[in-house]
Amino acid sequence: MVRLCGERYPSGDDMYPTYVLVAVAGAIGACVLAGVAVGVRRRSRSKPAR
Fold it and tell me: Does the pTM exceed 0.70?
């Protein structure tokens, strides 16, 4: 945080609330995990059974 002319930047009013950032990060993490899981399943299916 920076203080300039008696004002603090960034002020808390301009930023997204913490719960919004947590929700977005959780959604992105879930998508990444789902993508990894699908990739692993595809790789294991493409191997021929012995």
Answer: no
